[in-house]
Amino acid sequence: MNAPTAGFIGKAVLRREDQRFLTGNGQYTDDIVHQGQTYAVFVRSPHAHAKLLKVDTEAARAAPGVVGIFTGDDFVNVGGLPCGWLITSVDGTPMKEPKHPLLAHGKVRHVGDQVAVVIAETLAQAKAAASLVHVDYEVLPAYVDPAGEVGSVPVHDEAPDNLCYTWALGDKAAIDATFASAAHVTKLEYRNNRLIPNAIEPRAANAIYNRSDDSYTLHVANQNPHVERLLMAASIPCKPPFVTATDCNAAFARRVW
Fold this sequence. Notes:
Strand content: 15-25%
Radius of gyration: 24 Å
Strand order of the largest sheet: 1-5-3
Helix content: 10-25%
Shape: globular
Low-confidence stretches: 241-257
């Protein structure tokens, strides 16, 4: 262990961010307000698993201040959200990666799944219009016991047995031999409570377009800003002076975008 690291063991580490937050000088995404800014409110599913029979936005579209309303039908050809960490199963096959559309399409798969998004001139108007969106659901069985749901009705078509992957670490043969030669083996079954962090600022984003240089600036509450930039920018076509894919990749690696 090197000396600088050893010097922190057993000692209190002073926090640097408290002063600005305690004195009201901290900045959250909600503190950033652009000229002409609009607000988005999502309509979310109250069901853990259900078919979407109809999403009626007619009344909401006529509400005051509404700029636009979008449902899953509007993003069928746009793509979805990728998995941030891909796992390989113990048999060497890649994990089954279910599609994650920007807005639910066909059915919802968890409580809070986004069914529609309302864009309005003010937050109050967006909330009021969102309450006017009517959704018809056909409720499907909800699964809350991961150990008992194998082979049941699939939540995702890509995982018909409701298994995404089987992951293991260690030397299986050595472990099996150890258990086989043990004088006594104890089996325990236990349940862990679900962990739900409650951040001061939830997932939030605020973006603005600059017409003068055709650029976007995104303010986002995220612990992985470089990964977020990579996922958004990797699929954006290059513009001059970068004329080849190699030039694009090199420029991105130098963080000059």
